[in-house]
Design a protein that fits this description.
It is a single chain. The chain has about 110 residues and is α+β, with helices and mostly antiparallel strands. It has one domain. The protein has one helix and six strands, in the order ββββαββ. It has a four-stranded antiparallel β-sheet, with no helix packed on it. A two-stranded antiparallel ribbon has the order 5-6. The radius of gyration is 17 Å and the shape is elongated. About 0% of the residues are buried.
Length: about 110
């Protein structure tokens, strides 16, 4: 982890010196918050590395879009129920924190 400014920003560095992945929450109005994510990759200037990067880009786009839509769905669901800070239950099978929908609890917007 590079930066953690809870609850506003998180920056990860899964591959030190090569890849960073950042998330930022920006309040828009009292009832809305924008989540922005950014990935930066350092790619060697060789043909195989650039082709690999180009091939991975569409998959990364689809994965990120799906992740953000799921975060949006969960955050809006929590806001609709007025229960943004509900405690998570513990899954007996895995020992992981999970919410009522079987997913890990989402962080509430600031």
């Amino acid at each position: 982890m590079r930066v953690a400014d809870a609850p506003r920003a998180l920056a990860l560095e899964p591959v030190p010196g090569a890849i960073t992945w950042g998330f930022a929450l920006t309040p828009l109005v009292a009832s809305a918050t924008r989540l922005v994510t950014r990935v930066r990759c350092r790619v060697e200037r060789t043909l195989p590395a650039m082709l690999t990067s180009a091939a991975m880009e569409p998959a990364a786009f689809v994965m990120t879009r799906r992740m953000l839509l799921n975060v949006k769905r969960r955050a809006e669901g929590l806001a609709r129920h007025g229960d943004a800070r509900r405690p998570a239950s513990v899954s007996a099978a895995s020992g992981a924190n999970v919410g009522h929908d079987g997913l890990a609890p989402a962080a509430p917007p600031p």
